[in-house]
């Protein structure tokens, strides 16, 4: 089943269950996806939708840290709950060992010899791990391997 269809089905289930938080979060995701489709005059693939959801999760994680720092635990809790809803639609997260294995394979595949080849390695890795691992952490791993 396509990811957009899964989101729409879950939206219907959330309406029937009267789960306001889940319904609101799914509606935000569908709205963002629709906006991207309108802006780009195209239909988004599952990979594009995962990129949208990844961005939404990242925004909420930033909000959680800011709300926590400001002492607004109520808002931080709401954002954390939205992250959990969005995570339901993300692909299975990779373990550290799986990321390390993919990183080693990407370095070999791209023929990377040093830091100047970081872009090549990230270009190989990104499609494989998009939405399945924290790209910031992966970037740090690549830097440490190539240094």
Question: How would you summarize this macromolecular structure in one to three sentences?
Answer:
The protein is mainly alpha-helical. It contains seven helices and no strands. The radius of gyration is 18 Å and the shape is globular.
Identify the notable features of this structure and list them briefly.
78% helix, globular, 2 domains, Arc Repressor Mutant, subunit A, Hypothetical Protein Yqey, Chain: A, domain1, mainly alpha
The description of the largest β-sheet is: none
What is the CA-based Rg, rounded? 18 Å
> Which range best describes the helical content: under 10%, 10-25%, 25-40%, 40-55%, 55-70% or over 70%?
over 70%
* Mass-distribution shape: globular
Sheet-strand content, in percent, reads under 5%
What is the distance, rounded to the nearest whole angstrom, between the alpha carbons of the first and last residues?
A: 42 Å
What's the CATH architecture name of the largest domain?
Answer: Orthogonal Bundle
> How is the CATH topology of the largest domain named?
Hypothetical Protein Yqey, Chain: A, domain1
What are the low-pLDDT stretches, counting only 5+ consecutive residues below 50? none
Count, helices: 7
Mean pLDDT: 90
Query: What structural category do the secondary elements indicate?
Result: mainly alpha
Identify the CATH homologous superfamily of the largest domain. Answer: Uncharacterised protein YqeY/AIM41, N-terminal domain
What is the tally of beta strands? 0
- What is the CATH class of the largest domain? Mainly Alpha
Instruction: Tell me the series of helices and strands, N- to C-terminal.
Output: HHHHHHH
Q: Tell me the count of domains.
A: 2
Protein name: Glutamyl-tRNA amidotransferase
InterPro entries: Asn/Gln_tRNA_amidoTrase-B-like, GatB_Yqey_C_2, YqeY/Aim41, YqeY/Aim41_N
GO molecular function, one term: carbon-nitrogen ligase activity, with glutamine as amido-N-donor
Organism: Aliivibrio wodanis
